[in-house]
Write a structure and sequence with these properties.
Elements: E1 3-7, E2 10-12, E3 18-25, E4 34-39, E5 46-51, E6 57-59, E7 67-72, E8 77-82, E9 91-97, E10 101-102, E11 106-110
Parallel strand pairs: 2-11
Antiparallel strand pairs: 1-3, 3-8, 4-5, 4-9, 5-6, 7-8, 9-10, 9-11
Length: about 110
């Protein structure tokens, strides 16, 4: 069983930055594929970024060059650094572990 807790969401102006964190307990994150998803009101949940066990990463086209996913194996934590935020990035962001476990989500709102 894996428990995931996200943090770092909030309200930010367009062009600003936020750093999301996903802390895990119950297992070792380095063993799993980790990912961040997001869901905006009235839309389906979508993949934002993924990092596999060897550190390779993939990103949605809409966030390439602006978002960076990383993992800190010592702290059993995954981060999502979000720069140059746009209003269309507004959503609830979810951490996912091994395509099975989900966090509770953290709200990100980009607005002036």
């Amino acid at each position: 069983q894996v428990q995931l807790v996200e943090s770092g969401g909030g309200l930010v102006q367009p062009g600003g930055s936020l750093r999301l964190s996903c802390a895990a307990s119950g297992s070792i994150l380095s063993m799993y594929v980790m990912a961040w998803y997001r869901q905006a009101p009235g839309k389906q949940r979508e993949l934002v970024a993924r990092i596999v066990q060897d550190g390779r990463t993939t990103y949605a086209d809409s966030v390439k060059g602006r978002f960076t996913i990383s993992r800190d194996n010592n702290k059993n934590t995954v981060h999502l650094q979000m720069n140059s935020l746009k209003p269309e990035d507004t959503a609830v962001y979810y951490c996912n572990c091994g395509a099975t476990y989900w966090g509770q989500g953290t709200q990100v709102t980009v607005s002036s």
